[in-house]
Here is the input.
Amino acid sequence: MTKSDKDQHITLRIAQEPKADELLARSPLAALVGMLLDQQVPMEWAFSGPHSLAQRMGGDDLDAHEIAAYDPEAFAELFTTKPALHRYPGSMAKRVQQLCQYLVAEYDGDASAVWADVPDGAELRKRLNALPGFGTQKAQIFLALLGKQFGVRPKGWREAAGPYGEAGSHRSVADITGPESLAEVRAFKQHAKQAAKAAKRAVEQ
Here is the structure.
């Protein structure tokens, strides 16, 4: 959050589970980890992962320093223990640890420092894109999430977020505010996937 927004109360309904959403709302690192896990699994599963991980680590939040220094095999076990935290628990455990190691090296373990006092949207996208596991699309979606639901809105943030920054859109997790919008985002993703398959078939014919 930006300095002016630190005291505002944020309510999220991304994980569709109160305790998991409460953690996402108050913990910048949990939000980043949720975004990292958001691939090849349902969005609710991905964003409930940080809360499940915190519980398995014996706390109520995630700490980048602790995760960065964790024994890799033991950390992977936290992900693979049933119910697994992801469809690909081993590889995602490694990615989460790499993300935290990067945050420790570049931001002293403070995830919010990635966007604190950022001068503009382009710089924020650049910082997010530099995070391990964050490609251009993931960086833009998280940038949109920061702007739409966390109040982090540096100059040009919508433009930097690309189509995900559009007001009133239902393209990504940035637009989920409850069950109805979740269904709309899911429908959009399904339609986009079908359109991509159709385009591929047309090219191959």
